[in-house]
Design a protein that fits this description.
Layout: H1 2-21, H2 23-39, H3 43-52, E1 64-66, E2 72-74, H4 87-97, H5 99-110, H6 124-130, H7 132-140, H8 153-179, H9 182-201, H10 206-234, H11 240-244, H12 246-266, H13 273-279, H14 282-293, H15 299-304, H16 308-319, H17 325-340, H18 344-347, H19 354-369, H20 372-388, H21 392-414, H22 420-446, H23 456-474, H24 477-487, H25 491-523, H26 526-545, H27 558-562, E3 577-578, E4 581-582, E5 588-589
Antiparallel strand pairs: 1-2, 1-5, 3-4
Helix pairs in contact: 2-22, 4-10, 4-12, 5-10, 5-12, 5-14, 6-7, 8-9, 8-10, 8-25, 9-10, 9-13, 9-14, 10-24, 10-25, 12-13, 12-21, 16-17, 19-24, 19-25, 20-21, 20-23, 21-23, 22-23, 22-26, 24-25
The chain binds beta-D-glucopyranose (BGC).
InterPro entries: MFS_dom, MFS_STP/MST-like_plant, MFS_sugar_transport-like, MFS_trans_sf, STP/PLT_plant, Sugar/inositol_transpt, Sugar_transporter_CS
Family: Belongs to the major facilitator superfamily. Sugar transporter (TC 2.A.1.1) family.
GO molecular function, one term: symporter activity
Length: about 600
């Protein structure tokens, strides 16, 4: 008798398990999780949830540390220095942010993640000249499978060679940025990118193309290493998020402009359109090169390099007030600390820097694991099947491109009010839901065989959810992936930390570009669930481990880590210095 009951229970459990695996249930699960995060933005419910989970609610939600000088630095409610947003600081930040244009233009122009679908590498004239064997294989490929599109490893390696160059160069950039100042890395980045665009535009053989791409990559490595740091140091603490996100805004504008330009040049008769696309990279490169010639260096870097008077003067100019004593003396303290550190690369491994090191590795890793580049680059394939025909790539580029640019403004205007955590949690939830829906909609039409057609109306629904996904990314992981790592490090290892951020970002963009078409062919619509799964993991990670950094002065960020329920353990009381004082444990108190 018992045996029969047990068999029934096992049988029903198996059925339930099968049910749970069905798509609808997955969707319901995603919705439930999303609701949890949305609801948990109300503090009381969240504190209840965390307490149920047995987690001490400090730092990650709201905490504060009283500094020895009496000022209060709190997660989300930072100490305020006198000063206002001056036209000078606004202009310098706008000019510096244009460094993002070169990165964005390259993403858009070369079709980095999927060279056979978009970018110059999808133009017949370009392939005929440089990769004729790829073109003939592509033409011979008659597959109608929507998951297994034409895949050329040669082209992928060629386009993503740029990421390897950027990865390596960001480490050299870190030295230039620290020893000579942020300005020179930006200038160098612009110049090297300019050389790359000239080589590419004038290319007569594959070697020229490859050298050109390596130069472009080095330029991007330098710019991405220095621009976010520059912006975070120049900006007043309470507007740091807004001014820093100018960088991501320029990336999105670069992508959009490149896509539209590519569409136009692909139509040029005579087969030299690709040259125009590649050579036009000189425009964003010239903007940042000339612009950075006129940029002043940041007060932080000036002090770090032993020019305190120039730093004080610069601080007065950027803050628009003579009352800069407090901020200046905090910068001097930070710089004294920094001088004791001779080897940033050895020091960054110390236990007290573990929180920042973890973030600067995981944030860019997670940013790429959102699947943004896959969704954006796969969009044209979907659009073709949806029935947009030859205009598919333009349509998808314009629609997702505009959403990407416009949605970035949402983060610009909210990041210093709502804070980084709320944007991360909301954006992550939105991406998770929309990704699961896109995967499900594709599964319904293409199943596992990859055969089928999407009716127009249905296609618009898919398009809508792709846009919801892109918008979620554009106000969360897109800008915050560059902002947060640039604002959490103390001066002595900031430059090294930022180069880790750049190299991890480039490494995983490279990896995803290498494997994405193979993954799509094997995992089919499951690829969308794969990325959705990662978005779930990263959202939980942020909820638990990232303290709020909005409005906290950059040189006092250590106190935010000290007050965090988990990271606090890694930082000793004597590690916290403000104006030469130490913070005793008695000064630390948490407010839940
Ligand atoms: C990411 C890129 C991505 C872009 C999209 C950036 O923050 O680093 O990989 O293509 O956003 O807007």
């Amino acid at each position: 008798m018992h045996g029969i009951v047990e068999t029934r229970i096992v049988f029903s459990a198996l059925l339930l398990y099968k049910e749970l695996l069905c798509l609808r249930c997955l969707l319901a699960l995603a919705l439930l999780i999303a609701l949890f995060f949305l609801a948990s933005s109300s503090l009381s419910l969240r504190s209840l949830c965390f307490r149920v989970l047995g987690i001490r609610l400090v730092g990650g939600v709201r905490s504060e540390v009283t500094m020895a000088g009496g000022a209060v630095v709190a997660g989300g409610e930072g100490k305020e220095y006198p000063g206002k947003l001056t036209l000078f600081v606004l202009l310098t930040c706008v000019v510096a942010a244009t460094g993002g244009l070169i990165f964005g233009y390259d993403i858009g122009i070369s079709g980095d993640v999927n060279p056979s679908i978009c970018g110059v590498t999808s133009m017949d004239s370009f392939l005929t000249k440089f990769f004729p064997e790829v073109l003939s294989k592509e033409k011979a490929n008659k597959s109608t499978n929507q998951y297994c599109t034409f895949d050329s490893p040669l082209l992928t390696i060629f386009t993503s060679s740029l990421y390897l160059a950027a990865l390596v160069s960001s480490f050299f950039a870190s030295v230039v940025t620290r020893v000579f100042g942020r300005k020179w890395s930006m200038l160098g980045g612009g110049l090297i990118f300019l050389i790359g665009s000239a080589l590419n535009g004038a290319a007569i053989n594959v070697s020229m193309l490859i050298f050109g791409r390596i130069f472009l990559g080095i330029g991007i490595g330098f710019a991405n290493q220095s621009v976010p740091l520059y912006l975070s140091e120049m900006a007043p603490a309470r507007l740091r998020g807004m001014l820093n996100i100018g960088f991501q805004l320029m990336i999105t504008i670069g992508i959009f402009a490149a896509n539209v330009i590519n569409y136009g040049t692909a139509k040029i008769e005579g087969g030299w359109g690709w040259r125009v696309s590649l050579a036009l990279a000189a425009v964003p490169a010239s903007i940042i090169t000339i612009g950075s010639l006129f940029l002043p260096d940041t007060p932080n870097s000036l002090i770090e390099r032993g020019h305190p008077e120039a730093a004080k003067e610069m601080l007065r100019r950027v803050r628009g007030t003579d009352d800069v004593y407090e901020e200046f003396s905090d910068l001097v303290t930070a710089s004294e600390e920094s001088k004791m550190v001779k080897h940033p690369w050895k020091n960054i491994l110390k236990r007290k820097y573990r929180p920042q090191l973890t973030m600067t590795i995981l944030i860019p890793f997670f940013q790429q694991l959102t699947g943004i580049n896959v969704i954006m680059f796969y969009a044209p394939v979907l659009f073709k099947t949806i029935g947009f025909g030859d205009d598919a790539s333009l349509m998808s580029a314009v629609i997702t491109g505009v959403v990407n640019v416009v949605a970035t403004f949402v983060s610009i205007f909210t990041v210093d009010k709502l804070g980084r955590r709320k944007l991360f949690l909301q954006g992550g939830t939105q991406m998770l839901i929309s990704q699961a829906i896109v995967g499900t909609l594709i599964a319904i039409k293409f199943g596992t065989s990859g055969q089928g057609q999407i009716p127009k109306g249905y296609g618009y629904v898919v398009l809508f959810f792709i846009c919801v996904y892109v918008a979620g990314f554009a106000w969360s992981w897109g800008p915050l992936g560059w902002l947060v790592p640039s604002e959490i490090f103390p001066l002595e290892i900031r430059s090294a930390g930022q180069s880790i951020n750049v190299s991890v970002n480039m490494f995983f963009t490279f990896i995803i570009a290498q494997v994405f078409l193979t993954m799509l062919c094997h995992m089919k619509f499951g690829l969308f669930y794969f990325f959705a799964g990662w978005v779930l993991i990263m959202t939980i990670f942020i909820a638990l481990f990232l303290p709020e950094t909005k409005n906290v002065p950059i040189e006092e960020m250590i106190s935010v880590w000290k007050a965090h329920w988990f990271w606090g353990k890694f930082i000793a009381d004597e590690d916290i210095h403000v104006r030469g004082d130490h913070v005793g444990s008695a000064d630390l108190h948490a407010k839940a």
